[in-house]
Amino acid sequence: MNADIKAVEATVRTYLDGLYEGDAEKLAHVFHPTSALTTARDDGAIQIVQRDAWLDAVRTRPAPQAAGMQRDDHILTIDLVGPTLALVKVKCQMPPRYFTDLLSLLKIESRWQIVQKVFMTETRGA
User: Fold this and answer.
1) What is the pTM of this model?
2) What b/e string do you get for 27-52 counting C-beta neighbours within 10 Å, with b at 16 or more?
3) Distance set, CA 70 to CA 42, 54, 111 (Å)
């Protein structure tokens, strides 16, 4: 397997671990400081949250692991677009919320970092 694909996968696995563990420092390590998270709200408006505001929210909410939630996350696709750009699609959950994330990664100073997360949320059984 290509070394860059392995490195992208490792970055995304750290992201998924950080989500499940509620570890904002792991997340900060894999998200570029200028990154943001973007989604469409139920009212159709676009919501953009800067990385540091999101990390603050992660620090103050119960971690899925600590709450005893079942872990079920998957890397669905890794598209190594070029030597410095990758797109990754993942599924993860914090029941009753289920997420599909599209992660854009850039290779910056020889390290793959998430520079943008676009996601959607489905609520089930709530």
Assistant:
1) 0.94
2) bbebbbeebbbebeeeeeeeeeeebe
3) 26, 22, 31
